[in-house]
Amino acid sequence: MNNDITLQMEDLPNELRLLLAFLSADHEADLAFDYQELLQQADWDRFIALARHHRVFPSVKRRLHELGSVDIPTFVAQLFHRDYYRNTLQMLALSGEMEQLSKAFSDNGIRTLFLKGPVIAADLYGDVSLRTSCDLDMLIPMGQLNGAEALLVSLGYVKDEYIVSVLNDWKWRHHHTTFRHPDKGIKVELHWRLNPAPSKEPGFNELWSRRRKSSLINRPIYYLGREDLFMFLVSHGARHGWSRLRWLLDIKQLVNQKLDWPALIRLLRKHQYSHIGGQALLLAARLLRLPLQDEMKPLLSGRKAHWLAEDAMFYVHRMVNLHTPPLAEEISRYHKRYLFSLMTVRQKIQFIASFLFPYHEDSETLPLPKPLHFLYFPLRPFLWAWRKTGISKFGRL
To answer: Name one Pfam family in it (predicted).
Structure first.
């Protein structure tokens, strides 16, 4: 297929172009023809900041070691080596904790699928040290959520009570809750869904039926099947605007494995992710020189995939950290529009309709006894308008 994907890359800074060259090259001969010029003009402090922001410094360190002859300042190589060493310790700690959690959950009859972290580092890169992770993501059946939360608390984890809800809207407005271990310094995200609403996705039992067993450690640790992992990774990366190149590098590594493309295309179509799968492939092709294959055509033929790939370049051109509020007003406005553009027509209707469902802010504006919470449905428009007046709440009834 034609790999010449048109995306706005002309004004990318030299340091980012150099980073992309290193991530794209498997051999020194694969480096972009102008990389020597980029090396000479590089602002190395900015290059380091970009590699850290995009969480790709382990891959850069390995690639620099493989290329050998690349002329890079000693202090830069030493810094990447130090970051790589620290990340290795972090990933080993996460691997050990993952093993303990897997055993504890299994002993308590709770089925668990690990979504990211050490299992996909080993699967995609062949070495846990070559991918960064700051937490463990676990997917469990919704019906076992209470037991899973109690188990984590018994293991010394503390729940981050950031989710507030009325009428159980947390079950679909959110998709995970967070626990932190104060002594180990490890964070666990406990998922009951892969993505927040209005996404469409397979149920746990279906994902479990296609699970794979990790060979990372001796005891059984399960994670997503290859096609399910592709769907999860592209939906997660798209939702975050592909603001970290690590997520695109994951896609490239996964595509280089043996995917069942007909099965994957059926899966993405069924759950309305075809355009997002196409977006990921187009970005990986243009930025990381992923070869496009004929089997991918059904995901690349629609205009929406191309539009979304172009939209994501907004994040590539900037070091956007969506997890560190407050966001700049320009970025916040753009991201809201971008998230809406990811949705299908049906999802957009569901998303707009969700604003009619009561929010926790409504219960703060007008506290009602629990038996009367159903009244928040007809009252919601009035409570929303009341808050817009700047007056926070009514008196308690």
So the answer is: NTP_transf_5
